[in-house]
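Progress against Task 2.4 (sequence-to-structure conversion) is shown through the following example record, which the project officer requested during the mid-term review.
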Amino acid sequence: MNTDKPEIRVAILDLYDGIENEGMRGFRDILDRYKVKHNLNLKYEVFDVRRKVQVPDINFEVYISSGGPGNPLDSEGTEWEKKYFQLIDNLEAHNQSSNPQKKHVLFVCHSFQLMCRRYGLGDVNLRRLPSFGVLPVHMTEAAKHDLVFEGLADPFYAVDSRSWQVINPNINRFKELGIELLALEKERPYVDLPRALMAVRFNEYFIATQFHPEADAAGMKLMLQRAHKKEEIINKHGEGKYKEMIERLDEPDKIEHTQNTIIPNFLDEAILKYQKVDIEE
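Structure tokens generated for the chain above:
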């Protein structure tokens, strides 16, 4: 099937360090659905970046870099991070070349924090309490004109799961590099704390989200209903928060809509443009 079509290769960079997660399944499910919907000869390969120091070359059309556990500051200078950022350097160099087939990258959660640290976009620090739930995300004006966010309400809802965050955006650095801030965490008028950055566009081809656009309602519900996870959330956040999360997962305009919008829009930008270039050549 699809053997008469150009092969489209997607590299999934797994930064979970062997920790059990729903994110990798979410990425695979979205790619599988996208492949069928558009009748593509699409293949993906997973690279275990942190645990096995596996990093792809630049011969893929699309790259998706996952979330993961731990302190995004501690990995500075490690072998895996050096190779990871070398890949980013190589992709940036490719995109600045005359080659018409550009390389698109989506960075999620832990990857978002690493990239913000790399570019010096703000303060990367530990939250007072972990954020976990189905929470509103507020778009900036730039996001309202960004095709990846097309079709979303403001605010939209997404799965937010993080102990670390990026706050206090360095506006001068954003302007210097031409980077756009696309989204911020929920407004908290009664809390005197800075709002975390939730999405950034580094350039035409690189975009990052602090939240998890790959999360799906069914998978999240199964995870939350496991006895140990339910107990953990209730102990940390209270039973009211747990019930709110379950209820929000059942609302089709929230997680389901976000999952069906952001990454498919990103793939439209990355893959359909690639196909157009291939046809023109």
